[in-house]
Design a protein that fits this description.
mainly alpha, 278 residues
Length: 278
């Protein structure tokens, strides 16, 4: 399949509309890849929170496209290698490697969304949305496992993988939104680059400091975040393809990420922030 058109520059964190994308690009990709499976694996099957009006409309539209684009990649993998390949440990590792390019861009989009369209609900509201979202997806994964992923329909298996990836992206969005709120409380209006560097530190990147973010800092932040996002998405399943992260654990992981956004000191303003009026 063609690469995602959001660009290759890891320091470019603008929203995808700046790259010529319009709402519906993910659905177009899914329809081009598997027109007969859109109704079985499309965004309509995403957990309720992804489609809830608790999220800004722009965020819901972006998540719809990310879900459909991710589903298209998984469906294409199954079409090429067969569903039995996906049921093996080696096959699942190969799929996650294939998804790295899309997820790298998707996490940048999630940060851009959190910066441009943050949730207006306070620290505990952010925790609630994140915890409910992660818990809901984990509960759904357990239901699918209970229905026998090994012998069940291929669509259930595809939805499980897409849901695992999207849950991590939802967490990135909610945690980013909480970090933006921290700056706003201090009467700051940080650039998206500043927030990206902060999120890298939240997700474990070291040596980022609190100085204005440059290209090197942002690239390191995105690299560390991507590694963690993929590792955690993989970790949601054991070797037997059975969910090992239950609703309580999943919710606690996301709640912890949101809480961590409140701790690091605010980064020094960069040129973009200093140049803004007021």
């Amino acid at each position: 399949m063609a690469d995602d058109p959001t660009g290759d520059d890891t320091s470019d964190l603008d929203l995808p509309g700046r790259h010529g994308l319009t709402p519906g690009w993910g659905r177009e990709r899914l329809m081009a890849t598997a027109p007969g499976q859109v109704a079985e694996v499309g965004f309509e099957h995403a957990p309720a929170l992804f489609r809830s009006d608790r999220l800004p409309e722009e965020v819901r539209e972006a998540f719809a496209d990310l879900w459909d684009a991710t589903a298209a990649e998984v469906v294409d993998f199954v079409n090429v290698h067969g569903v039995e390949r996906l049921r093996t440990r080696a096959g699942r590792r190969a799929l996650w490697r294939r998804l790295e390019v899309l997820l790298a861009r998707a996490q940048r989009l999630a940060i851009g969304l959190g910066h441009a369209y943050p949730l207006d609900m306070g620290r505990w509201g952010h925790r609630t949305v994140g915890v409910v979202g992660s818990s809901g997806v984990a509960a759904g994964e357990q239901v699918i496992a209970g229905a026998s992923v090994f012998t069940g329909p291929t669509s259930a298996l595809i939805i499980t993988f897409v849901g695992a990836a999207m849950t991590e992206l939802l967490e990135v969005y909610v945690a980013t939104s909480a970090r933006v709120e921290r700056y706003r409380f201090a009467a700051r209006s940080p650039s998206v680059q500043t927030i990206a560097a902060d999120m890298g530190a939240v997700y474990g990147a070291s040596g980022l400091g609190s100085r204005p973010a440059d290209r090197r800092v942002i690239e390191e932040a995105m690299r560390v975040m991507l590694t963690r996002v993929i590792r955690r998405a993989q970790w949601r399943f054991g070797d037997a393809l059975v969910p090992i992260v239950g609703p309580v654990i999943a919710g606690a992981m996301t709640g912890s990420a949101v809480t961590r956004t409140q701790s690091p000191p605010l980064r020094e303003p960069d040129e973009l922030e200093r140049g803004r009026p007021g």
